[in-house]
Design the sequence.
């Protein structure tokens, strides 16, 4: 994997209002206490938090780590998301492909000089094609968390959804560090299985020529307990801490660009195809 480094400090470049959903206060995003979609969201997390165990995650790494299931270009994968509505998302009820373009365009507006960052916005949820290949949504979407150690309180619905997860009662896994060592680094932590980790594996296997920051954004953009709540810092390495502001920067666009004003994809496709041709061209292994 070719790693390109960037030197800019993201805290000096973020435009906090770029792409924010018109008419919707930021405090109204990620509302897990009320809303028309709450039952659907809660049931998705209940299944996730029941079945995402160390053994399950290891099986999924073995199943998908070789990227041998299909061949698709980036744009073909993106088109598949026309048929996916994320059942864990309390903010939107439209196909995920539109969210990809909304995120990318929000980044493009605020950071016109960072084309690799625009592409990250388009790519970040492509791993959700797993849900169109037979995987249940609880094994694809939603916030991620480390398995193999004690669940932190900042995990969504942590107080009511883990009671049937066997790892919760396993003394090897239910302490603060569980099966890990202090500051072992997130690259050595087994995260709950989903689209983040899958897309990261696809990017590595196919040698995407994107910066290291892009790989962090893709791999950990759903790790809200870490990048938004500051949890699990006892597992982080200095490199994780250095990359955290970039993941936080990406999160602003991932979250606050969600709105019902859907983009005209036909007007945008040629630009993003040019970025795909630059950083991850051709038929890829998935």
Sequence:
């Amino acid at each position: 994997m070719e790693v390109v480094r960037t030197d800019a400090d993201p805290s000096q470049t973020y435009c906090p209002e770029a792409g924010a959903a018109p008419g919707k206060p930021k405090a109204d995003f990620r509302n897990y206490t009320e809303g028309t979609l709450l039952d659907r969201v809660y049931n998705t997390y209940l299944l996730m938090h029941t079945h995402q165990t160390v053994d399950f995650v290891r099986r999924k790494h073995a199943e998908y780590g070789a990227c041998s299931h299909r061949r698709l270009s980036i744009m073909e994968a993106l088109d598949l998301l026309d048929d996916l509505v994320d059942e864990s998302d309390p903010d939107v009820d439209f196909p995920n492909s539109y969210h990809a373009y909304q995120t990318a365009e929000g980044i493009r507006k605020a950071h016109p000089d960072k084309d690799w960052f625009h592409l990250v916005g388009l790519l970040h949820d492509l791993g959700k094609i797993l849900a169109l290949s037979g995987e249940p949504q609880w094994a694809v979407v939603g916030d991620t968390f480390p398995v193999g150690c004690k669940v932190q309180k900042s995990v969504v619905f942590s107080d009511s959804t883990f009671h049937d997860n066997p790892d919760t009662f396993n003394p090897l896994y239910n302490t603060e560090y569980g099966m890990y060592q202090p500051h072992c680094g997130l690259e050595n932590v087994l995260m709950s299985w989903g689209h983040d980790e899958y897309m990261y594996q696809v990017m590595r296997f196919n040698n995407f020529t994107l910066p290291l920051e892009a790989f962090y954004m893709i791999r950990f953009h759903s790790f809200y307990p870490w990048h938004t709540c500051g949890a699990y810092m006892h597992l982080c390495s200095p490199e994780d801490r250095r990359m955290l502001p970039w993941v936080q920067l990406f999160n602003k666009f991932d979250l606050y660009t969600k709105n019902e004003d859907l983009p005209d994809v036909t007007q945008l496709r040629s630009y993003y195809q040019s970025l795909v041709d630059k950083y991850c061209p051709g038929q890829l292994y998935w």
About this structure: The first helix runs from residue 38 to 51.
